[in-house]
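Fold this sequence, please.
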Amino acid sequence: MARREPRVLGMVLAGGEGKRLYPLTADRAKPAVPFGGSYRLIDFVLSNLVNAGYLRICVLTQYKSHSLDRHITQTWRMSAITGNYVTPVPAQQRLGPRWYTGSADAILQSANLIYDDKPDYIIVFGADHVYRMDPRQMVAQHIESGAGATVAGIRVPRSEASAFGVIDADSEGKVVDFLEKPAHPPGLPDDPEATYASMGNYVFTTSTLLEALREDADNEDSNHDMGGDIMPMMVKRGEAYVYDFKDNDVPGSEDRDHGYWRDVGTIDAYYEAHMDLIAVHPIFNLYNQQWPIYTHHPQLPPAKFVEGGIAQESMVGAGVIVAGATVRHSVLSTNVRLNAGAYVEGSVLMDGVQIGRGAVVRRAILDKDVVVPDGAHIGVEPELDRTRYHVSSGGIVVLGKSQLALP
């Protein structure tokens, strides 16, 4: 008799407000923020799950979710005849008139999805990181170890680990402590100068997760958070193991992009992740055809360069027209227009941005439909920019959706 494959349900936590990405999150949830010229942040986790063959996925949404819901329903259509789906699930208030109070509460309030699907295991992944991962390998380790919960950890230098939730594990991979941004992060058994940072990706045995969620809900002192409350509970029970992300082998990956993962939770991290894309040999390769990143591509003509317009070391989306302008080290989304004499360098331009004649844009992020008038300068005079626009701690100038730049 053929062995039954374990039934796995994907649950993606996509309710984050993303305050540190303001103004990009002023009008949308963080997972819906555009990335890489063609994608939304949520496309990366959904692509990882779908490429692995996990085709029943619930996306738990809450904050300003309209554009996220629309993107999921228009883009991520699975075959209903085979029982597959990717569905957005808003806060349903099934446990009373309240919104989600934390990531664990979001799953508890959506427990009906688990009871309906009857999975053996549940994948709980975040929705706002840029990476490739084959989650089948993490699920296989979870099953083999007999763990109740497995958390993915990425190795980071100890000197940088205080910015993360940190996993302290023994030589067998059993988690002995789960620490939130510790001042003195523990080293690894095989590398004292490195630490496991939590990637916010978990695999649970279904019965274990449901029991933990119910216990957590009764704890009035809990923040009802997966990393802050559920995982420490699993550690105390001796049921938590770590999955080392360096062991994950994604088809088509190369040495330079093996183990790439970026938390793009701040403007500066979001900007740097874009700069990672445009190197001659990018450390995150969007062109891996064996593990594609899926999204919805609008019906647009190819990019056009006229009147001497050029783009160097850049990514340029469909429908873009560069007319007598110069683009360097930048990422241009669809339908961007650059007019004669304009100069764009080290910038991220989202859909529908218009750059006027003779305008200069340096080290900037321009959200959808931003208009830069003729002769305007952005990223040229830092002190003036700070009086006019949002400027990150790293000096990146950000204009929000549909904002009109000042002359």
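Residues 304-399 form a domain with the UDP N-Acetylglucosamine Acyltransferase; domain 1 fold (CATH 2.160.10.10). The chain has two domains: 8-268, 304-399.
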